[in-house]
Amino acid sequence: VESGSAESLSLQVQGTGGSSAVSKCSAAARGYIQDRFLRLLAGRRRRRAPLIHRGYYIRARAVDHCVQDFLLKTQSLPRTQILSLGAGFDSLYFRLKDMGLLHHTVVYEVDFPNVASQKATLIKRMEELSALVGDTEGEGLGAITFSGDDYKLLGVDLSELSELERTLEEAGLNNEIPTLFIAEVVLTYMENTRSDALIEWAAEHFPQACFLVYEQVHPEDPFGHVMQQHFRQLNTALHSVARYPDCEAQQRRFLGKGWTECSVMDMNEFFTCCIPEDEQQRVQTLEPFDEYEEWHLKCSHYFVLAASKGMEPSWTPLLPSVTVPRHAGPVGMAGSVPAAVCARLSGIPGLRRYGHHSVLIKPNMILTTGGFGEEDGQHCRMRNFHVLSKHAGYWEDVCVTQNIPDKRWGERLYHTVSHLSDTLALVVGGRTSPSRAGLGMLWLKFPKTCHASGPADVSVELVSLQPAAEAAALRWRHSTTEVTFKGEQYLFVYGGRSALEPVLGDWCFLHTPELSYTAIAVEGPVPESRHSHSACSWEGGVLIAGGLGAAEQPLGSVFLLRALEHGFQWQTIETHPPLVPRYSHTAHVHEGKLLLVGGVWFHASSVPGVTVINLMTGLCLNYVINVEHLEWPLMLHNHSSVFLPNEKELLVIGGGGNCFSFGTHLNPEPVLLSLSSILISH
């Protein structure tokens, strides 16, 4: 690398450290982490989104968990040391010193020379910081930009190993005492040969040591593609993920480079296993939040690793063995389903959205409403209704009813639309902001005759409800399904969440078409509360599958609300092998088979494709979606899908989400999934 471009690259990498400090500072300001020093070190302050706060919370917790574990287990030793690689403007030393945890530990921090000198200047300028360090040993000399009794700040490029070794020796690092190395999103920015050499050097030169790593994994799935693209655009490409794409590969990396013990877990596992339930609940209620899919995907794309060598058995590992079933195990796939873009539907911005709803309003005509997406090049809540119609075997974008003037529509997300007749559909619930109350019910009325170009207009009318039925509407991420009782049609509104309740487990029956609230007896064990589940009409009742439960954990249960003479009964449908827990999927029933499409699960080794459950036998088979003919990542959550029984095809519309700090991904065009081979073979 020429020196000019190398310098430019190092500046870009340093930029990620500054951005990280600002995000951590914002998370601390909102109460996610307790750290009064971040605001002194971060410089500029900017409030980040709740999703970013959660992401930096879990990162801080993972690092703190391992660091404090190391200090606790080595507290009886006369001396230990911590070497933080690529420390940036991190506050670790000041927090540990303030907590009284550094009685016999020296902290060494290393970063690029200009970052280290900026931090040294900050510390000297801030009484609150310099007082904690105490007496400094003169001004910084050469690469040692700041030096106190138990704190040394060094300006060295980590990729220059011989220079690093010389400076550490000069600063007093002792190879013979137990040492904790920390690399928090650092190694991945280095060329693999250099980061591998650093890992090996640490193992060779330090007889008693631990190495803590926090960084990215799973570059090849849809979220991973968006993540990689983001870092490439910043000119800070991720190097490690290509050679070490999963947790097992990272574990093998350390074990093959001189480390004798190594434990690793992704952040979904860490949150579940290492954070107490009361703390999980505290974090989940700190601010209004409704981006579960992106939170769980972010967590499945980051890991924490703790490697060690030469340490007493009682000192290691820093991470517990995973006590819950390991998420990373591969999900068995029975085959694949081909995906293809729809001819004539490319480049239609109105279909780039998520959190919307699509419904067949008559054969070969699909209405899509609401969600968040792209309009006129801007990301916004979608006011436009969108109609697709099929002519001569092709789906066409036939009509967009522009800008519904009726404010009662409310630009809603996560609502349901039930098609009741050729001229009538019912919108139930949805939200604008997760901090606001859910939205009520609306009638969508279509003209009796829709010519080839689809309905020229869709009128929106507010539904007047009884007070008992009103509560049923004020929710989102719920389901609304048609059921039959004593020959009469009802809508069964179930589950979801509201501004006050993070998860609901109640239901109601609304008699159609006047929507009167009707009490109907329901017996049997009540399913646990859930939202983002799927619900399908079947044999007069409802099939409920998956969802996200009260602890923000995906559910793997399938229930049938079975129609009886005197009411309904909840029944569990046993599947074998057990259904992999998931949520944010869509579902359809065809000839006694339940089809689950996409969603989010914790099995980081693959993304959900199509799962087929035989409702007679309980056999549950997973199929991967073959995306080789797509030129972009297909994100199958927050999407909608319409099953076309004659063609045995699924039309998937929209999908995607706000991918942490990596940008918003919207599937650019509808996709057809051909199910003919799996429906015959199943």
TrEMBL record:
It catalyses: 7-[(3S)-3-amino-3-carboxypropyl]wyosine(37) in tRNA(Phe) + S-adenosyl-L-methionine = 7-[(3S)-(3-amino-3-methoxycarbonyl)propyl]wyosine(37) in tRNA(Phe) + S-adenosyl-L-homocysteine; 7-[(3S)-(3-amino-3-methoxycarbonyl)propyl]wyosine(37) in tRNA(Phe) + S-adenosyl-L-methionine + CO2 = wybutosine(37) in tRNA(Phe) + S-adenosyl-L-homocysteine + 2 H(+). Its EC number is 2.1.1.290, 2.3.1.231. SUPFAM superfamilies: Galactose oxidase, central domain, S-adenosyl-L-methionine-dependent methyltransferases. The keyword Nucleotide-binding does not apply. The keyword Transcription does not apply. It is an enzyme of class 2 (transferase). Pathway: tRNA modification; wybutosine-tRNA(Phe) biosynthesis. Keywords: Methyltransferase, S-adenosyl-L-methionine, Transferase, tRNA processing. GO terms for biological process: tRNA methylation; wybutosine biosynthetic process. GO terms for molecular function: tRNA methyltransferase activity. InterPro entries: Gal_Oxase/kelch_b-propeller (IPR011043), Kelch-typ_b-propeller (IPR015915), Ppm1/Ppm2/Tcmp (IPR007213), SAM-dependent_MTases_sf (IPR029063). Belongs to the methyltransferase superfamily. LCMT family. Interacts with RNF144B/IBRDC2. Probable S-adenosyl-L-methionine-dependent methyltransferase that acts as a component of the wybutosine biosynthesis pathway. Wybutosine is a hyper modified guanosine with a tricyclic base found at the 3'-position adjacent to the anticodon of eukaryotic phenylalanine tRNA. May methylate the carboxyl group of leucine residues to form alpha-leucine ester residues. This is tRNA wybutosine-synthesizing protein 4. It comes from Chloropsis hardwickii. The lineage of its organism: Eukaryota, Metazoa, Chordata, Craniata, Vertebrata. The gene is Lcmt2.
